[in-house]
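Researcher: Please predict.
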Amino acid sequence: MKPFIFKKLLPLLMIAAMLSVSLITANAEVIVSDGDYSYTYTSGAWELYAYNGTDAEITLPGTFNGSQVRTVGDRCFASSNLESVTIPNGYTSIGEFAFFESEKLSEVKIPASVNEIGVGAFSKTGIESLDLSATKLSAVSTVLCDGCASLKSVLMPESVKTIGESAFSSSGITSIKIPGKVTSLAPRTFSNTAALKSIELPQELVSIGESCFEGSGISEINLPEGLTAIGASAFRNAGSLTELYIPNSVESIGGYALYPMSVQSKIHVTCFKNSYADEYCYENFVQNTTAYDYLVGDANLSGAVDISDVTLIQKYKAGLRNIDNPCAKILCDANADDEISVRDATIIQMYLADIIRELPV
């Protein structure tokens, strides 16, 4: 045996001898078993390699031979008969396809110490909800919950910046809030999610990938100001989608983005006149479109700024009227601070009295 391999194996051979546990070597990888679990030693810490037990509900071991177990290894519980798993604090990562195709698995409790979850970790499992809110994850991996038909809800931490392709595709998810640091939704993130009825998008969102909501159950969605790109087939076959607001900031919309709802006149698009969305709807025969003049201060969308707009904002702030139209909400913001306030009504009054010459564009 070469010296460098011997140095790698020696600590594990000693451990195996002291614990009287079984030891297997394959391609210089050492697997140590204590009965229910098998482990490997990687980067100075123990990694859970496999589960050899028969219990359906388990709490993973926190330590082995007096040292912390840090990782659930790749495919560690793939195709298992587990129903519930609790991961104790101290684990920092869950490997790729760790629970893949464990169809009976309905619950995995994840501690705050986890900061990385690999590709497809829960794909095609029976998991019903996933709470990641206590973690410090910066990324939701590709196909994380793809094919999880029983999945209803996912809670993500605000630390998440990216969401991988098909992360929740073909799942049973019903509603979700996307963290504020996410600027792009990857292709097919929510494709084939017929149960998805509501989604809260971050204001920093810049792009929606191709087929992102294709085949989803979304019925109404107001895209955030600042969004610039909508990918091809983004909402294709989202047959329940009847109301869509597309902001002025959008500069590109891919082919078949609203097909076939557009040609069937099942979707109503709200946008501003002469915007890219307005032109797109005209060129693609989206007949059920309402486009408004971009006239700051026109709170009631009458096509003119007058005292009735002031009155509407005041009644809105007093809880006497609603302002639901997304275009109206934009035009109400006379001081451009991204909220509707009494200050907006005051500025419009000052404009009508010629105290100020113009409102923000």
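Model: The CA atoms of residues 37 and 51 lie 5 Å apart.
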